[in-house]
């Protein structure tokens, strides 16, 4: 209880503790981002084999879960001990190389750990100590995982999206972020809005402009923030997507026919709206001469 009292009364302690927690969670998110798609692929293969009444083939590699096997170097298979798996510090100590074979370790891992810590601190600074902070951290961590998985695999796992949707509704039963009526309508409006755009685009072009995971992600954001936040999220995601998409085409000469996942833009916009959506809306209305000063 003394620690909780300290976190509740000291902003410095709260931010420091949240940063350290964010680094540790960021390390775990690296595992989720890498292994969850592999686990889902194994499960899909088993379901397909069962549906086709075919014997399921034994996996070539050791079965993967979020806890097993231990983290290891993808080049030489050298197991990574706990001392060599300390967020950021181990990467710097090893100078970004495997201690077993000297192969280069991707800087992506410490970057995700640092980003998770910084975003967590931003949430703590915004909400302060309490239940809104707890929910905000869970949402932030989920959005980071969903963003990276969608970038890697163009996939938004239901294993993350759907539990977070129900959790958002649970938080708003007590009006933590919005009233429960707005949250429920937010789920329906979030899903149906992108679902309608999907089918309209498909009827007009014969192509699929987005995946069903995007519908569920926006529905999840609606569960946390209510239907009132959806216009801001959609506008922000379009702006973020346009900037990043044009940047990829110009800087990396990306083929315009290669699909760019929409989920990361939606997740980034949702996180921005979660913290500053009301301020953005108020500022825009005031700038347009519609809102009160």
Describe this structure in words.
- The protein has helices at residues 2-9, 11-51, 89-93, 108-127, 131-153, 158-172, 180-205, 212-225, 230-252, 263-287.
- By secondary structure, it is mainly alpha-helical.
- Helices cover 68% and strands 0% of the residues.
- The chain starts with a helix and ends in a 6-residue tail after the last helix.
- Helix 5 (131-153) runs antiparallel to helix 6, helix 7 (180-205) packs antiparallel against helix 8 (212-225) and helix 8 crosses helix 10.
Question: How is the secondary structure organized here?
Answer:
Layout (H helix, E strand, L loop, with lengths): L1 H8 L1 H41 L37 H5 L14 H20 L3 H23 L4 H15 L7 H26 L6 H14 L4 H23 L10 H25 L6
User: Over all CA atoms, what is the radius of gyration?
Assistant: 21 Å
Classify the secondary structure makeup into a structural class: mainly alpha
Mean pLDDT comes to 86
For the record, give the distance between the C-alpha atoms at the N and C termini, rounded to a whole number. Answer: 42 Å
> Which percent band covers the strand fraction?
under 5%
Task: Enumerate the spans where pLDDT stays under 50 for 5 or more consecutive residues.
Answer: none
Q: Find the count of extended strands (DSSP E, 2+ residues).
A: 0
Q: Describe the main β-sheet briefly.
A: none
In N-to-C order, the SSE pattern is: HHHHHHHHHH
Number of helices: 10
General shape: globular
Helix residue percentage: 55-70%
